[in-house]
Design a protein that fits this description.
The protein has 293 residues and is mainly alpha-helical. It has helices at 4-20, 25-35, 40-65, 70-94, 99-121, 137-154, 162-169, 175-200, 205-225, 231-249, 254-292. The chain has one domain. The model has no long low-confidence stretch (mean pLDDT 78).
């Protein structure tokens, strides 16, 4: 049976995903658990199957434009594909208690850390071509393996954690190649996890259909308006929302949660003002240099 409130919720979440470029699992799965009382394993299973349908769309665009480092994709998938499938068994074992719920809470905390790291180093995009990138097989394989396990257990990580690790490992990689490579490697990763959850998880057809009906137009709308929105501020506020989700899933007390969220908002506001002022100084400096010439 189609769930219209869930369709509306997934539509709103997908708009945020389209605006920020962040993977939907970090928002969609906790939304289903916290606001729609979906059991943890069913939420993870249905979100991964829905993601397996939607992920290839963006990846085909990048493949067509040649903004994918296929060597990196190969090494990442060598670790992530089997690890994601095995992660399903961990999720099923932990589903007896609150294991999946706590695992998702930890994964969301990692996603918040990833957003913070990306804000610090995300603007340092390199300029090297694909041929100039020297692949580091073992660290890349390790990133894929760890990311695969996290995605298989929690559905979080394919679009938020792995890309941060790629930035750290390959700072010379162009920004468009970074995004394209992350999108393409996420396709077999999510498909592997989705197959595992179809076979051994708690996949529900009506739940997945509701997610797809709401998500597809939401992602499209978010992507269309993303160029007009202050993306840095949106990602910062998204980090605060993810932090609230994570603390709720980990059963942290209301007082501590409010204190941590208050501190996060202060950091966001101060950081945003600093970035605006730094951008203004850089712009005025460039204008002065141009006039001097």
């Amino acid at each position: 049976m189609i769930d219209f409130p869930l369709i509306a919720g997934s539509f709103l979440v997908a708009i945020v995903v389209g605006l920020t470029g962040m993977g939907g699992g970090a928002l969609m799965t906790p939304m289903m658990m916290l606001f729609f009382n979906v059991p943890p394993l069913a939420a993870v299973s249905s979100d991964l199957v829905a993601s397996a349908v939607m992920k290839p769309v963006g990846s085909f665009v990048h493949l067509r434009h040649g903004t994918v480092n296929l060597r990196l994709v190969g090494w990442l998938c060598a670790g992530s594909v089997p690890a994601a499938f095995c992660g399903v068994f961990l999720a099923r074992a932990w589903a007896v208690g609150d294991g999946v719920k706590y695992a998702l809470g930890v994964a969301l905390l990692l996603a918040v850390a990833g957003l913070a790291a990306k804000a610090l180093i995300g603007d340092r995009g390199g300029s090297a071509s694909a041929a100039e990138i020297r692949v580091r097989p073992f660290p890349t394989l390790l990133v894929g393996t760890v990311g695969g396990v996290i995605v298989g257990v929690s559905s979080v990580g394919s679009g938020s954690l792995i890309i941060v690790a790629l930035i750290a490992l390959y700072p010379a990689l162009k920004a468009n190649q970074l995004v394209g490579t992350d999108l393409v490697q996420a396709v077999p990763l999510v498909v592997s996890a989705a197959i595992g959850h179809l076979l051994f998880g708690d996949f529900q057809v009506d739940l997945t259909l509701s997610l797809l009906i709401g998500s597809i137009p939401g992602v499209y709308l978010g992507a269309r308006i993303s160029s007009r929105a202050p993306g840095g501020l949106i990602r910062a506020m998204l980090a605060a929302v993810l932090l609230a989700f994570a603390l709720t899933l980990l059963n942290v007390g209301n007082g501590i949660t409010l204190a941590l969220l208050g501190a996060a908002v202060v950091v966001i506001v101060v950081g945003w003002r600093w970035r605006v002022r730094a951008a203004a100084r850089a712009s005025s400096g460039s204008a002065g240099l141009a006039q001097a010439r």
